[in-house]
C-alpha cells in the first residue's frame, strides 16, 4: 500500500524542508563572511542578527519538522502497508505549519524578530513570530497524533506481532516530540505572546529559560531519530548485510526518548536561576543519554562489518574497504559516524560542568552543534532523500555521482567550518556576535580561522546547491516506464521471534517520562511561583 496520495503528502513536506534549507545555507555563508570582518562594507549588526535568527529558525525548526513529518508519513504507510490515517487531517497539519512558517518569516526577514532561534527573553520579537512558531508546532502535533493513532491501530489489529522497527522509532519520536514541545509551548503561550502583544508588562527570564531548557535538549533527539532510523533500517541492507541486533535498536530509541527529556539543565549550567543540585541531577541524565548513541555506534558499525565481511572483507579492518562506498546511503553513514566522533566528544565536554564553564557561549558550542546536527544528522537526511526521491517520484535518481560528490563535499565543508569554531571557542571568541571590536592581539589570532570558515561555508553552499539540483532534475525527468524499485528495509541478523512487550510498546515509557519530568522539572518550575521575582521589561520590537 503506497499510492500517489501518500507520496504527494511525503514529498510536499520534504520540499518545504529543502526549500527552507537552501535559503538558510545562503544566509549561513553571508554570516561567516560578515563575522570575519574582512569585508567592512558588509558589516551590519542589524542585518547579521536578522540573518542568523532566520538561518537558525529555518534549519532547526523548519527543515527538521517538515522533513520528519514527510519521512514519518512515508515510513508509516510503507511499513504498516496502510494508507495514512485521516489524510485530510494530515494536510490540515501541513497547511497550519506552513502558515506558521510564513507568519514567522515576515518579522524575521524584516528585522522584527532578531531574537535568534532560542528567542530568550527579555529580548522580544514581533508577536507574529511567536504566533507563527506556535502554528508550526500545532501542525507538527497533528503529525504526532496521526503517527500514534496508526501505531496503536496496527498493534490492535496485529496482536503479539512486532511493530516494524522503522514505525516503532517514528512513534517513539512522535511521543518524544509531544513531551518536548510542551515546554516551549508553555513559554510562548503564557509568557512571550502576552508580552509581545502588550497584555503583560514584564517577563521572568529565569522561568522562560527553564521552560526553554525543557525543550532544548530533547528537540535535538527529535531531529536525530530519523537519522538513526536510517542507520538501523536502511543502512545494513544498502551496505549488503544485516542489522546486527533489532532489540538493541529498539532499546536505543527508548532510552533516547526517555532520557532526552529530564536533562535540559545542561544548557543552564552557567545560569543563576537553578541551584547546583538540580544541575547535577540533569548532568547525570545527560551522561545516561549518551549511552544509546554509543549503542547505536556499536550496532551500526557491527552491521557494517557484517556487510563488509559478506562482501569478502578479511582481517581486522579489511571489511571497511569492501563496503559499497559508492552507495550514497553507505557513504553517508560512514561520514556521519566520523563526524559523530568529534561532535559527540564535544557534547561530553559541554556536559561536564567545569569544562562547560570554559566553552559556554563561545564559538565552540556553534562548532559542536554544526558538526553533530548539520553534519552527523543532516547528512543522513540527504541520504534518505537520495533513497526516497526515486521511490516518491517513480524515476531513477538523476545522478548518483553527483550525490556522492555532494556527500563528500558536505563532510569536507563541515569539517573545515567547524574545526575553526572549536578552536575559536577555546581562544575565547563569543558565539552569537556580529563583530568583535576589542581589536587586540587576541582577535588577531582569530583571523586565520575566520578565513577557513568562509571557505568551509562556500563548499557547503556548493554542496547544498548540488543536492537541490539533483532532486529537482530527478523529479522533472521524463517518466520511465520500467522503473520498479521498492523500498527495502534491513533484516535483522537473527529474526525477532519473542519480543518483550515493552520493546514493542510505548505506554510504560510514557509513564516513566511523566515521573522523570515531575522529578526533574517540577520543583525547578514551581519555585518561580513561590518566590518573589522581579520581572524584566521586554526589549525589542
Ligand atoms: Fe549537544 C549544545 C551536550 C548531542 C545539538 N547541542 C547543543 C546545541 C545544539 C546541540 C543545537 O551538555 C546548542 C543549543 C544552543 O543554541 O544553546 N550534546 C550534548 C551531549 C550529546 C549531544 C552530551 N547535541 C547532540 C546532538 C545534537 C546536539 C545529537 C543535534 C542533533 N550539547 C550538549 C551540551 C550543550 C549542547 C551540554 C550546551 C552547551 C552550552 O554551554 O551552551 C550526546 O548525545 C553525544 C553522544 C555522542 C557520543 C559520540 C559517540 C561516537 C560514536 C561514533 C563512533 C564512530 C566510529 C567511526 C568509531 C558520545 C558512536 C567508524 C568509522 C567507520 C569507517 C565505520
Ligand atoms: Cu542539550
State the gist of this model:
This protein is 72% helix and 1% strand. It has 541 residues and is an all-alpha fold.
Structure description:
This protein is mainly alpha-helical and 541 residues long. The chain has a single domain (4-537), classed as Up-down Bundle (Cytochrome C Oxidase, Chain A). 72% of the residues lie in helices and 1% in strands. The chain has 16 helices and 4 strands. The strands form 2 sheets. It has a two-stranded parallel sheet. Strands 2-3 form a two-stranded antiparallel sheet. Helix 1 (4-36) runs antiparallel to helix 2 and helix 2 packs antiparallel against helix 3 (87-109). The model has no long low-confidence stretch (mean pLDDT 95). Bound molecules: heme-as and copper (II) ion (CU). Heme-as is lined by residues 118, 216, 220, 223-224, 266-267, 286, 289-290, 293-294, 297, 301, 304, 320, 334, 337-338, 340-341, 344, 347-348, 350-351, 356, 360, 365, 368-369, 372-373, 377.
End-to-end distance: 50 Å
**Count of beta strands:** 4
Query: How much strand content do the residues show?
Result: under 5%
Mean pLDDT: 95
CATH level 1 class label: Mainly Alpha
The CATH topology: Cytochrome C Oxidase, Chain A
Structural class: mainly alpha
Number of helices: 16
- Poorly predicted ranges: none
Looking across the biggest beta sheet, what order are the strands in? 1-4
Sheet with most strands = 2 strands, parallel
Ligand species: heme-as, copper (II) ion
Order of helices and strands: HHHEHHEHHHHHHHHHHHEE
Approximate helicity band: over 70%
What is the H level of CATH, i.e. the homologous superfamily?
A: Cytochrome c oxidase-like, subunit I domain
Give the CA-based shape.
globular
The name of the CATH architecture is: Up-down Bundle
User: What's the number of domains?
Assistant: 1
Radius of gyration: 23 Å
Amino acid at each position: 500500500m503506497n499510492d500517489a496520495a501518500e507520496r504527494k503528502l511525503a514529498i510536499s513536506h520534504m520540499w518545504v524542508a529543502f526549500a527552507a534549507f537552501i535559503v538558510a545555507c545562503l544566509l549561513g555563508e553571508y554570516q561567516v563572511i560578515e563575522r570575519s570582518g574582512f569585508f567592512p562594507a558588509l558589516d551590519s549588526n542589524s542585518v547579521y542578527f536578522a540573518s542568523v535568527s532566520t538561518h537558525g529558525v529555518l534549519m532547526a525548526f523548519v527543515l527538521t519538522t517538515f522533513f520528519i513529518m514527510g519521512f514519518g508519513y512515508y515510513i508509516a504507510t510503507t511499513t504498516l502497508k496502510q494508507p495514512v490515517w485521516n489524510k485530510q487531517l494530515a494536510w490540515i497539519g501541513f497547511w497550519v505549519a506552513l502558515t506558521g512558517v510564513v507568519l514567522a518569516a515576515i518579522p524575521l526577514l524584516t528585522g522584527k524578530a532578531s531574537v535568534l532561534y532560542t528567542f530568550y527573553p527579555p529580548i522580544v520579537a514581533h508577536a507574529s513570530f511567536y504566533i507563527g512558531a506556535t502554528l508550526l508546532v500545532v501542525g507538527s502535533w497533528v503529525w504526532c497524533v496521526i503517527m500514534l493513532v496508526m501505531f496503536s491501530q496496527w498493534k490492535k489489529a496485529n496482536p503479539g506481532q512486532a511493530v516494524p522497527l522503522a514505525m516503532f522509532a517514528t512513534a517513539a519520536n512522535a511521543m518524544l516530540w509531544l513531551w518536548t514541545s510542551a515546554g516551549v509551548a508553555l513559554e510562548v503561550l503564557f509568557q512571550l505572546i502576552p508580552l509581545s502583544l502588550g497584555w503583560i508588562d514584564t517577563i521572568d527570564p529565569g522561568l522562560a529559560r527553564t521552560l526553554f531548557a525543557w525543550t532544548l535538549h530533547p528537540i535535538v533527539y527529535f531531529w536525530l531519530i530519523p537519522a538513526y532510523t536510517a542507520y538501523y533500517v536502511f543502512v545494513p541492507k544498502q551496505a549488503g548485510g544485516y542489522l546486527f541486533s533489532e532489540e538493541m535498536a529498539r532499546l536505543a530509541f527508548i532510552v533516547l526518548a526517555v532520557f532526552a527529556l529530564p536533562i535540559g539543565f545542561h544548557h543552564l549550567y552557567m545560569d543563576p536561576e537553578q541551584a547546583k543540585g538540580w544541575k547535577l541531577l540533569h548532568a547525570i541524565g545527560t551522561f545516561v543519554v549518551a549511552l544509546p548513541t554509543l549503542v547505536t555506534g556499536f550496532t551500526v558499525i557491527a552491521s557494517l562489518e557484517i556487510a563488509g565481511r559478506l562482501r569478502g572483507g578479511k582481517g581486522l579492518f579489511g571489511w571497511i574497504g569492501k563496503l559499497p562506498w559508492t552507495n550514497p546511503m553507505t557513504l553517508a553513514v560512514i561520514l556521519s559516524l566520523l563526524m559523530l566522533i568529534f561532535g559527540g566528544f564535544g557534547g561530553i565536554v559541554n556536559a561536564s560542568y567545569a569544562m562547560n564553564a570554559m566553552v559556554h557561549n563561545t564559538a565552540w558550542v556553534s562548532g559542536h552543534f554544526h558538526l553533530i546536527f548539520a553534519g552527523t544528522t543532516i547528512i543522513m537526511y540527504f541520504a534518505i532523500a537520495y533513497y526516497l526521491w526515486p521511490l516518491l517520484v517513480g524515476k531513477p535518481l538523476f545522478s548518483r555521482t553527483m550525490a556522492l560528490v555532494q556527500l563528500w563535499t558536505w563532510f569536507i565543508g563541515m569539517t573545515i567550518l567547524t574545526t575553526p569554531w572549536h578552536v575559536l571557542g577555546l581562544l575565547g571568541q563569543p558565539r552569537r556576535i556580529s563583530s568583535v571590536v576589542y581589536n587586540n592581539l587576541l582577535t588577531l589570532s582569530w583571523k586565520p580561522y575566520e578565513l577557513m570558515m568562509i571557505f568551509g561555508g562556500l563548499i557547503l553552499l556548493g554542496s547544498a546547491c548540488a543536492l537541490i539540483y539533483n532532486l529537482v532534475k530527478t523529479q522533472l525527468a521524463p517518466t520511465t516506464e520500467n522503473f520498479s524499485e521498492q523500498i527495502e528495509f534491513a533484516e535483522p541478523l537473527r529474526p525477532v521471534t519473542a519480543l518483550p512487550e515493552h520493546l514493542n510498546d510505548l505506554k510504560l515509557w510514557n509513564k516513566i517520562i511523566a515521573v522523570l519530568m515531575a522529578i526533574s522539572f517540577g520543583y525547578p518550575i514551581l519555585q518561580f511561583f513561590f518566590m518573589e521575582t522581579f520581572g524584566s521589561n521586554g526589549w525589542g520590537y
